[in-house]
Design a protein that fits this description.
Layout (H helix, E strand, L loop, with lengths): L37 E6 L2 H9 L11 E6 L4 E6 L8 E6 L4 H5 L10 H10 L7 H12 L3 E11 L5 E11 L4 E6 L8 E12 L2 E7 L1 H25 L5 E3 L1
Parallel strand pairs: 1-4, 2-10
Antiparallel strand pairs: 2-3, 3-4, 5-6, 7-8, 8-9
C-alpha cells in the first residue's frame, strides 16, 4: 500500500471517532447469481397472456424448444419454454377453475347450510343478486325459516302373516324452491345468471338447506372442452410453431 495522505473531516462536536481501514485484494463486486426460474400458475388464459407479451421478445423464449401439454382430465394446460435449458426454463400453468364466488355459495357440492347462516351469507353477498328486494326477501325467509312436518304411518297386515309398513312425510315451509344469482362459474369468465334450487333436510328440530343448480352443472359439463379448445386455437393462431401434446 502506498503511503498516501488521507484527510478525514469530523463534526466539530465529535469528541471521539474510530476509523477502520480494510485492505482487499480485488475490487468489491456483486456476486454472480443464477437466473431466477419462471414457474407461474394462473387461470386458463394465463398461457396466451404470457406468450402475447413475451413470444417476440428477443432472447427470452427459444421458439424451437417450446411445447404445451394439454391435460383435459385435470382441466389444465402447461407451457414449457426453453425446454432443454435448465437455467432458463419457463413453466406456465393455466388451469380451468371454478370461481371463488361460485364456490362460496357451495352450489352442487353437497354442503348443508343452516338457514340462519345462509341468511347472513346472502345478506353479505347482495352484489350477486339482480335487485335488492329479491336479496332482502331471501334474507328474511331464511332468517325466519319455518317448516311444518306432517307424518303419516300405516301398517298393512296380510292374512298370510306378512305385513307392509307405509311411511310418508310432507314438509310445508315458507322456503322458496328456487332463486337466481349473477356470477361467473369459472375464474376469468364473464358472469351469467344461474338458477339455484333449494333442498331442505329436516331431522327432528335440525334443518339444513342445500343449494343445487342443474343448469350450472350443465354449463360446466358442456363448456370444459370448449374453453380449452378456444385457448388452443388462440395460441395456434398467435404462435403456430408451438406443438401441443394431449396428455
Amino acid at each position: 500500500m502506498q503511503n498516501e495522505k488521507m484527510q478525514i473531516n469530523l463534526d466539530k462536536d465529535c469528541q471521539k471517532a474510530e476509523v477502520v481501514i480494510r485492505e482487499v485484494d480485488k475490487v468489491n463486486e456483486l456476486p454472480v447469481l443464477e437466473p431466477e426460474k419462471v414457474n407461474i400458475s394462473g387461470t386458463i388464459t394465463s398461457i396466451f397472456s404470457f406468450l402475447e407479451k413475451r413470444w417476440e421478445c428477443e432472447g427470452q423464449i427459444n421458439h424451437e424448444h417450446t411445447h404445451i401439454i394439454v391435460d383435459r382430465d385435470n382441466l389444465s394446460m402447461t407451457l414449457v419454454a426453453n425446454e432443454t435449458d435448465a437455467r432458463n426454463k419457463m413453466v406456465i400453468v393455466g388451469k380451468l377453475q371454478l370461481s371463488r364466488q361460485f364456490l362460496a355459495f357451495h352450489i352442487n357440492d353437497g354442503f348443508a347450510w343452516e338457514p340462519i347462516a345462509l341468511s347472513q351469507f346472502i345478506k353479505m353477498n347482495r352484489a350477486y343478486f339482480v335487485d335488492r328486494d329479491t336479496n332482502m326477501k331471501l334474507v328474511s325467509v331464511f332468517k325466519n325459516f319455518k317448516a311444518k312436518v306432517n307424518t303419516d304411518y300405516e301398517r298393512d297386515r296380510k292374512e298370510n302373516g306378512s305385513f307392509t309398513d307405509n311411511y310418508s312425510q310432507i314438509v310445508d315451509s315458507n322456503m322458496p324452491d328456487r332463486f337466481s344469482v349473477v356470477l361467473p362459474i369459472f375464474k376469468g369468465t364473464a358472469a351469467k345468471t344461474i338458477e339455484i334450487e333449494t333442498y331442505a333436510t329436516i331431522d327432528g328440530h335440525d334443518v339444513t338447506v342445500q343449494l343445487m343448480s342443474p343448469g350450472a352443472q350443465e354449463v360446466v359439463d358442456q363448456t370444459l372442452d370448449t374453453i380449452i379448445d378456444e385457448q388452443i386455437a388462440a395460441i395456434r393462431e398467435f404462435a403456430p410453431e408451438i406443438p401441443f401434446i394431449e396428455k
